[in-house]
Amino acid sequence: LSLCLSLCQEVKIFRALILGELERGQSQFQALCFVTRLHRNEIIPSESMAKLRQKNPRTVRQAEEVRGLEHLSMDVAVNFSKGAQLSSHIHNVCAEAKEAIYTREEDVKFWLEKGVDGSMFEVLPQTSDLPDLQRCKLCADRWKPCICSYSLSIEWYPCMLKYCKSRDAGGKVSSYKCGIRSCQKGYTFDYYVPQKQLCLWDEET
Q1: Domain ranges (residues) in the chain
Q2: Whether this model's pTM surpasses 0.70
């Protein structure tokens, strides 16, 4: 799992590499990319991020705050060859997931208002379009289309600044930056796949 942030375009990219099961006819691994809007209050400012220094980079860190699970319906596909117009990071981060880059219609509307070319987006089939479309975990035929679900967790990331208070000689209280607070957050993504064979892990959840 990797997470990439493109602050100026307000883009957040999740990449997941899933090891294949050879006995089930899968290749060595499967790559997925989920692209969503990055809200400014989700992470600390970039100038503060640049000043971060890890004294012990091999230490396993525990998040101070566990944020709620976010369930996202990824109902739009992103064209890999045009994705650089949205974020220059898509070309590198999602190179192994060229046919599996997903986003949400509500995020697309936001980016279109910012001037992004709409030709890179394609709305995926939904249950309203295909009445027989099921969730993959309920679908018995591995070659039928279905709605796949994939969950991941960001175990530790710098989510906000810490502020401390000081008092001067005259008794006036002021605040100053004194550290960084860390968070943990889980995500579940639902998205269309043309055949259940691309979503076999959903049988086990």
Answers
A1: 2-198
A2: yes
